[in-house]
Amino acid sequence: MKIVALAGSIVGSKTKTAISKVVEILQEKYPEHEVTLLDLAEYNMQFSDGRNYFEYDGDTKYVTETIMSADAIVIGTPTFQASIPATLKNIFDLLPVNAFRDKVVSMVVTAGTSKHYLMIEQQLKPILAYMKAHIVPTYVFIEEKDFMRKEIVNDDVLFRLERLAEDTVMVADAFAEIRAKKDAEYDF
């Protein structure tokens, strides 16, 4: 299984710290799976102009094709102005409407305060549902107070990140099995 962990911002360190921890957990617990970290801060992404994702070149082509080839995606995003950052929105704009069909998507969200947890429910989940994702129902919301010196210092957050990694793999395995049974119904 191919799992992509997406750090959806080009500034700050908290989202990258959290998503890197998820990658570490996935690689440790599920070494048989291919895990790729896409940190948008490391890529020169073009703005969406309406073309198909495979018509772009360079970093934009690499990032979008890597996402499209994934079986599961863990999206990490900070909360900016009570919303997702433009860099993450651009990723969604670059991809086709049904980009997440047959893909499992889970979320790790960082924010300055607990007041921003509704952003996930009212903005991020509807976008993912519109793009046909199988959304892992639980997500990890991490506040600024849970970090110190680019490290997660809250043991509960670490436990929840581990559980999110497990849930992502479990849900992806379950959907793969369902798809295989459905495909077996056809004779060709």
From TrEMBL:
It is an enzyme of class 1 (oxidoreductase). Transmembrane segments: none annotated. Its EC number is 1.-.-.-. Residues 1-144 form the NADPH-dependent FMN reductase-like domain. Keywords: Flavoprotein, FMN, Oxidoreductase. GO terms for molecular function: oxidoreductase activity. Pfam families: FMN_red. InterPro entries: Flavoprotein-like_sf (IPR029039), FMN_Rdtase-like_dom (IPR005025), NAD(P)H-dep_FMN_reductase (IPR051814). This is NADPH-dependent FMN reductase. It comes from Lysinibacillus xylanilyticus.
